[in-house]
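Work Package 3 (structural annotation) set out to generate three-dimensional models for the target panel prioritized at the project kickoff. During this period the team completed the workflow that converts sequence records into discrete structure tokens, so that structures can be stored uniformly alongside our sequence database. As a representative example, we reproduce one entry of 152 residues exactly as it appears in the project archive.
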Amino acid sequence: MKPGPALDDLGARIVERCRAGLEPDALRAAVLPRLRKAVPVDAVWWATVDPATLLYTHAYREELPSDSGPYFVENEFLRDDVNKWTELAHDRSGVRTLAEATDGVLALSPRYRDIFEPLGLADELRAVLRARGAVWGFMCLHRGSGAVVSPQ
């Protein structure tokens, strides 16, 4: 979606839903379709998080095989890689693409080589979801092979 009034309105609607006090599943259902209009993606992973430990409390996925979960967990907690959730949680912006973190050389990331490439995925945008300074969620937006996530 091109920058302008339509994107601004879409962003305002997403912020409005985020401030509505919805339960996690209702928030996801209200936000993801709007978000996909602004940033088209091929797969999504979204999780609520315990703000004290940064551990996932409930995860949701679209277009990712259910049996891929253990590979993502292993990569996140047992392997060296870029864009780890704990790193992003302490980063002021809390948002970064895999292409940014690897200077465009996705193959530098074990997550890309071991998980994304076999699944036909390329870039991902990881975002920390905060409220009042505390991390309450994580979100990954994935693009298919050869595509780069380019947030507006």
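The chain has a mean pLDDT of 89.
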